[in-house]
Model the fold of this input.
Amino acid sequence: MHFGLTEEQEELSSTVRKLLERRADSTSTRAATESETGFDAELWQTLCEQIGVAAFAIPEEYDGAGFGLFETGIVAEGLGHALAAVPLIGSIVVAEALLASGDDDVCREVLPQVAMGEVAALAWPGVTGPEVSALTVTADGDRLSGTARRVLHGDRAAVLVVAANTVDGPGLFLVDPADAAVTSTPAMDTTLRFADLTFDGTSARRVSGDAAAALHRAHLAGAALVACLQVGGAQRALDMTVAYAKERVQFGRVIGSFQALKHRMADMLVDVETSRSIAWAATYAVATRADDVDVLVASAASHCGDAFMHVAGEAVQLHGGIGITWEHDISWAFKRAQALNQLFGLPHQHRALLPL
Done:
């Protein structure tokens, strides 16, 4: 059995990679993270308008492209390799939650905005933790109270969905972002932007349907896409390390000729390739709603998180002293590995979900 990309998917990967090589270089990304938005708004607009990345997983009836999460994962891997600062994950998680809710009216109202590239955020502890994270916002009818912490791109969201406790269990609510008190919070990876959102009797509109099922779907999609980001980031760290090993000279020889370093880079390659296989399997399972989707996503989140941490750590070590400086891009890969490891649950939390 051959498991690989189709010709169209290969073309998508190549197109995204070429665009990012032109538009997401180190200088551009650093400038974007220091901007008011915290991400590269022009790059995000280009990705949405020219390639349609925000619309891939949204059905055509909601003005989407009607592809699936697998194609979105291909884009995420490219973004991970570029270490680009764009708000893809938050927007796709919101779209998946709303689609799983089954509220057609809300989907018709909101999803076209997401497909166009409007930044969307899901205020829910599960975005930065395990799915079972306790909700910190409470609903009293159509009013919300409480604080949602570390909301991904919560300070720039045009579409805001909040998970809150209700008398009959968890519920999803649409909230006008302008009605929430926003406090930005720093992230180790400056290409990610978080915010604390406080609600004080804030008016909200409840999304009908099964919120628990919607949040489960959101967690699966988010964890699978983060695994793709981790694959791309690990590949970038490996590529940079191999290139450096071909240039750095010690004891009269390039360090890439030393057998011990070859072994370490070979181990890094194994981590990257195995991560890519399980990340593809996970996004395909989510896209097709496979029976074993929970196991595959937990496996991908567990393996890819640890693998990226290992590859990034080795990359810093093999770069020597320059690898830990802010000026060198390899430090960004290390910070991204640390930050992505915190999204949608830690590796050991996902391993705990796997059957013995």
About this structure: Residues 211-245 form the longest helix (35 residues). The radius of gyration is 20 Å.
